[in-house]
Each structure stands twice: as C-alpha cells, then as structure tokens.
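User: For this week's homework, look closely at the record that follows, marking any run of repeated tokens, and judge whether sequence predicts the tokens.
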Amino acid sequence: MELPADLPTGLAETIEPMVRRVLAGNPSAFTYTGTQTYVVGKGADVAVIDPGPADPAHIEAILATVGDARIAAIMCTHTHRDHSPAAAPLAARTGAPIIGCAALMLSDDGPRSDEAFDTTYAPDRVLADGESVSGDGWTLQAVATPGHTSNHLCLALVESGALFTGDHVMGWSTSVISPPDGDMADYMASLAKLQERSDRVYYPAHGPAVENPAQLVRGMMGHRKQRERQVLRQLEAGPQAIPDMVPQMYKGIDERLYGAAGRSVLAHLIDLKNRGAVRHEGDVWALIHGD
C-alpha cells in the first residue's frame, strides 16, 4: 500500500476553528495513513474523539495538542483496537471521563478482517442516540450508526455542522462489515439514516475529510447494492463457498485482502438469508428458488 508522503504524524493540524486533528503512527491496509484523533474545542475545555492506540508517543501528542485546557470528555466511536485503547491511559493521566459508545468484546473464530476489539475499554457514560456532551463553545451529539460494529456511534458537532464518522463512512475506502458483530442490514439502515441528515462535512477516523457527504453516502449505498447483486449472480451459477466467490467478485485486488472481502461477502449472505433469498449447508451457499 502506497501512502501519501510527508504524513504529519503526531502534529496537531487545525482543520476548522474548533477542530484539531492528530494522526497516530499506525498506518496499515485497514487504517490507511493511521488513526486520526480529533480534539474539539478551543476554550477552557475540550473533547478528544477516538484517542487511538495505546501508543505513548500518540498519547503525548494528544496532551501537547490539548495544552492547558481541561479534557471534558474522552469519546470513542467504537472499540476496535485502533480507536479506543488510549482512552484508559489518557483518562488515568488527566482524570477525564470516558464517554461515548458502549463496551463490547466479541470472540470471533473467523479470519480477522480488521483490528480486534479493545478489552480495556470501560466507559464512564454511554451515549444513547441523540444524547449529547457539551463544553466551552461546543456540543457533540451522538448518532447511533451500528453496522461496522454493533456499538458504533458517529458524533455531530452541532455548532459547525461537522460529523465525526469513525469507521462508518470513510472517503478512502468502504467500511469492512465483519460478522458476527458486523451486520449488513444494520449498516445499510445507518447509511440511510445519515442520508436523511444535512451534515456539512464528515471527519472520518481514517483518510481525508469528506466534503460531499450526501453524494458519498448515495454512492456507498449503491456500491453495497451492487455487491449484493454480484453475490446473487454468483449463486445463479450454482451453490458455492465464499472462497470460490471472492476471486470472481473482487478481481484485481491484492490476495492478502481476500479474507476481508470474504467477511463482507458473508455479511451480504447473512442478510440475504435473513430475507429468505439464500440458504447454506455448512460452508456452501445456494439460492432459494420460489415455486
């Protein structure tokens, strides 16, 4: 994977008057340039969104960005290990409460397609859909967006119209939906929920800001529907296992990403099964033909 040059790892970038971004040094095929931590607020107190991995250098970079301000809330969109592990040491250093998504730890025997879940995450307060946290000149409102994970939240900065989208919507890549916790039906419903909003800009945890949110969400929904049609076309040729379907559906991708692609195919198949369109015996999936 070729990454952009001169990445500002560990340096605070002001991306709008109340928002600064700090990039963690954890680039990968699934995190792109790394996890982007956001510091919201420029007054007496601030919120830290997605503090990232428990990397001492990244934690120090966050503290340097915060400066003399008080951290009113350490907020996590979800609990994959590239997002929330720094919450506990940052809270220990500052006394700030951890507020945001619910805790989740899920055992998964399938091939991992993304970062595993953070077992250290222990929120002081869990935000329900529509609940908010406020500070000096800022308000962050929770927008429940399950799908990538069952506990995923986006966070809306009410004063500026920005939405921090975590891994739900990213400009550089589609989000991995990995069962059993990742759920395609929930993900599509969450995309539809965002489509009804009028957010000005998205700030994802990985990759560049999304300046055309409505257009991107429409495209992502269309992409998922196209993948579903691909799954059905594959099964029209006869029963198949996922490893046989992936190379046909994802032509040209790096074979190292076949595992991740297979998890998304499985998510589509589970959704189709729940809708009565397909069935499976063991690892082999087939269409259910009507009379």
